[in-house]
Design brief:
Layout (H helix, E strand, L loop, with lengths): L9 H12 L6 E5 L5 H8 L4 E6 L7 H6 L5 E5 L12 E7 L7 H14 E14 L5 H15 L6 E2 H10 L3 E8 L6 H21 L2 H16 L4 E9 L3
Parallel strand pairs: 1-2, 1-4, 2-3, 4-5, 5-6
Antiparallel strand pairs: 5-8, 7-8
InterPro entries: Methyltransf_11 (IPR013216), SAM-dependent_MTases_sf (IPR029063)
Keywords: Methyltransferase, Transferase
Pfam families: Methyltransf_11
């Protein structure tokens, strides 16, 4: 429908984790699932030495392809985030957003382990995902998780921020930064903040013209609102020890 920012905590959370991860000149950056390139634009503006956008999809002639065109040292890699094919220690920063939530615990750990492998010692791993608020009881979280999975048709398994941190630590990382934000992916104020007025109007127009998409989006928004007392967005930055 033309939405470019599909992040649980919006660009606000993206900027927070990147401020904490401090991408800069000389970095060798891997981004898992770069989508249409909104985060890639920020990462490339830091003038890294290398940038790899890893996506299981073929991004030929895509918005992401247009983001990196003419950028020395920037390339797209068609691969699964569990097995990128990149060399050990190739990166100094790995960024992944809105992808781990949709994985099983085993899948989450596999992607985290791959990030650990491709990072050089001292490298940083920044993630931005959906979470449960700290006070949420297990039964409430299970109900919210079931609602999400049924509505978006993909298994969604958010974690409390402490559990995200524990999982990162289980594959060897040391967590150095955590943050949370309101889960407001489809709220009007967040959409305008992320997409701008013109982007918001474009999305509204596209949704109005597509009844099937409108029905699904409204169902997703209703699910998010019904579970807003349980859900949040989380951001963490972890480091591979030297």
């Amino acid at each position: 429908m033309g939405k470019r920012v599909l992040r649980p905590g919006g660009m606000e959370m993206t900027r927070r984790i990147l401020d904490a991860a401090k991408p800069g000149a000389g970095d060798r950056i891997v981004e898992f699932g770069p989508g249409v390139g909104k985060t890639a634009e920020i990462l490339l503006a830091s003038q890294p030495e290398r940038y790899w956008g890893v996506d299981v999809r073929d991004n030929a002639d895509s918005p992401m392809e247009r983001v990196i065109v003419g950028r020395d040292g920037a390339e797209l890699v068609q691969a699964d985030a569990r097995d990128t094919g990149l060399p050990d220690g190739a990166a100094t920063l790995v960024v992944g957003e809105a992808m781990l939530t949709m994985q099983t615990d085993q899948g989450k750990r596999a992607i985290m382990a791959e990030a650990y492998r491709v990072l050089a010692p001292g490298g940083r791993y920044a993630i931005h995902e959906m979470g449960f608020k700290p006070q949420v009881a297990e039964e409430s979280g299970t109900g919210a998780q079931k609602d999400l999975s049924q509505t978006i048709k993909v298994g969604a398994k958010p974690l409390k921020i402490a559990n995200w941190a524990a999982m990162l630590e289980s594959v060897g990382f040391r967590v150095e930064y955590t943050s949370s934000n309101k889960m407001a992916l489809l709220e009007v104020r967040r959409v305008i903040a992320d997409e701008g007025i013109l982007g918001f109007l474009r999305i509204i127009t596209n949704v109005a013209r597509n009844p099937a998409a409108r029905k699904r989006i409204l169902a997703m928004r209703a699910t998010f609102k019904a579970n807003q007392e349980y859900l949040c967005a989380v951001g963490l930055v972890a480091v591979k020890p030297e």
